[in-house]
Amino acid sequence: MTEKKSISISGLGNFLIRRGTGIGMIVILLALGLRANLFFALSNLMDVLKQGSILTLIALGLTAVLIGGGFDMGAGALVQLTCNLAAGLIISGINPAITLPVGLAVGFLTGLVNAFLVIMVKIPSFVATLGTMFILQGLTTYYNQGEALTITQQPFFSFLGQGRVGIVPMIFIIVIVITALMHYFFKHTRTGLRMYATGENSAATALRGVNTKKYLMLSYCISGAILGLTGVFQASYSYGASAINSGMDFLIQALSAAYLGSTFSKTNELSVIGTVVSGMFIAALSNALIINGISNQQISGILGIILVLSILLNVIKKREIGQVTIF
Amino acid sequence: MNDTAISRAPARTKIINFLSSYGSVIGIILVLAVFQLIDNRFMRIQNIVGVMNSSTLLIVMSLAMMMVMSVRGIDLSVAQVADAAGVIAAMLIIAGKPFWLAIIVALLFGLGVGIFNCILMSYLGVPAIIGTLGMMFIVRSFELTLTKGAQPQILFTLPPGRTKQFFFIGQGSLGPVPMLIIICLIIIIAMYFVKERSVLGRHMEAIEGNVRAAFLSSVRIRKVFGATFVFSSVLAAIAGIMLVSRSGNAVPRGVETYLTDCFVAVYIGTLVSKKRKFTVVGTVIGALFVGFLSNFLTLRGMGAAYKTLFNGVFIIAAVAMGALQKNRK
């Protein structure tokens, strides 16, 4: 009798652990939305997609490096650097179209430096990216001299971040395109699958004759390129760059999105689609909470709780101690 | 390999051994000497005492971080806990409570966060980097809500009778020695005995080496691993109280920048030990170095940009030196 009961309970638990994330997300948003109907208005939902796009892009960049088995503390700092660079370049009168390749190149180079430190010098990825994070932050502060860089009257450039096609925000279309490319790359190409394998079990993959170093390097570079590009989009989205150092805030939200996304899969595998859904969920949640009259200060705490809970869903079964193996 | 080297050139290996164990200390001294050459205000007694005094907070916080990192954990919430503990103490004093109550409540807050962290990381198995990052934001949010949106809690405008005892911690001195330095010394010695001379310390070292092996030799890994988080948060709360008592006001989010300094201090500290381990003495030296570095940058009028740049370069340099040495073996 008791045995049977415990089995059915654990069955329910399993079901909740597997489908819990999705159900939980829908329930939370429904509950908040019913309290404040404004949330469900089509224009508000489109705003959510717009607000969540930058965060989702950062989370996608982070997912790329996490899939390859690396880690990046400096993801937010890199976005801020290229955001400032793009804004500064446009103010100095350069054709806005050039900022895109510049952002891409700076991001790619940063990824390459990270990869060099991790793979060649063999510094654990946490410390290496922490160091590059400081350097990126220092460069940003040096570049903008502590002042906000505001862009005005750049209709083409602003269209990227603020424009709409019909009612769909342009930036969201960019997210969709990048997501589709990444999903195809990671799930349907040999290179992508090998990156997954490298991240999953580096030693076993190496024994299968795969050059794991190459794939880890590739994941840092892809991640850097996406993050660098995101910075340019952010400059367009927020009409320039603010001097406030919000890299850490970006980082926690992006990490939450990536780990929350991994709870969609049975084996807690990181996935591009999961990251996008979770990123948009976090944006929707912030939006719904604000409509419900919860202040900005409390939202960061709620995001912290979500981060802890989402990782808890992943690890509660293993119950190892939470040592950090990446430094 | 090592043996042949010794028999062939004992003098040379001696020099190499000497350099590999003390080279980084010499490096640190050289950097400080260069600072002195660039700016001769640097090594004045007044300046040194000033730096020592302000480094005490960083030393205590870095020791907190070091305890967790020495078992391969990490505590990103350490600066935020210090921040919040300071704010709590300041608010209680402003509300007219006695100074000992303010201190005890702030310490209890640290203990509470520590126990929560301990359960989360050690008993539930959340990776420390994620769990404490989440905790950092939860504490920040709590603190901002408490102060109604980061209003500074100003103590020095209160009548001196109410704050005199509380300010004694940070501004008073026993004879010629400032109280802060005395507290800091007591904490350093206490931590030295916990980390290097106690059973707990040995068990921590076992966990650092290999968790499985430690578990098999009947080290209670969950307890030991969790205990470091409690140590860390309580030490952070002490640092927070020291800071508020020293400066006479508590600005929410004012301590956050210390987090990065802690990392630099701890990693530079690993250079001091021969096996690149996290040690109490090393961390203290690392924290003093960071203190002198930021003092130098302030003397030269170089802003935040240079400080973060230097922090990054020193972290990478410190760890790269250790990593390269390991690779060569």
Secondary-structure blueprint:
The complex is a heterodimer of chains A (327) and B (329).
Chain A: H1 2-35, H2 42-67, H3 75-91, H4 96-120, H5 125-144, E1 149-150, H6 155-162, E2 164-165, E3 168-169, H7 170-188, H8 190-200, H9 202-207, H10 212-237, E4 240-241, H11 247-262, H12 272-291, H13 296-315
Antiparallel strand pairs in A: 1-4, 2-3
Chain B: H1 2-8, H2 10-38, H3 45-69, H4 78-94, H5 99-123, H6 128-146, E1 153-154, H7 160-171, E2 173-174, E3 177-178, H8 179-197, H9 199-209, H10 211-216, H11 221-247, E4 249-250, H12 258-272, H13 280-299, H14 304-328
Antiparallel strand pairs in B: 1-4, 2-3
Write structural notes for this entry:
The complex is a heterodimer of chains A (327) and B (329). Chain A is mostly helical and 327 residues long. Chain A has one domain: ABC transporter involved in vitamin B12 uptake, BtuC. Chain A has helices at residues 2-35, 42-67, 75-91, 96-120, 125-144, 155-162, 170-188, 190-200, 202-207, 212-237, 247-262, 272-291, 296-315, and strands at residues 149-150, 164-165, 168-169, 240-241. Chain A has a two-stranded antiparallel sheet with strand order 1-4. Chain A has a two-stranded antiparallel ribbon with strand order 2-3. In chain A, helix 2 (42-67) packs parallel to helix 7, helix 3 packs parallel to helix 5 (125-144) and helix 8 packs across helix 10. Chain A is globular, with a radius of gyration of 20 Å. Chain B has 329 residues and is mainly alpha-helical. In chain B, strands 1-4 form a two-stranded antiparallel sheet. Chain B has a two-stranded antiparallel sheet with strand order 2-3. Chain B has a domain at 42-254. Helices cover 78% and strands 2% of the residues of chain B. Mean pLDDT of chain B is 85; it is low at 1-7. Chain B is built from 14 helices and four strands. In chain B, strand 2 (173-174) and strand 3 form a beta hairpin.
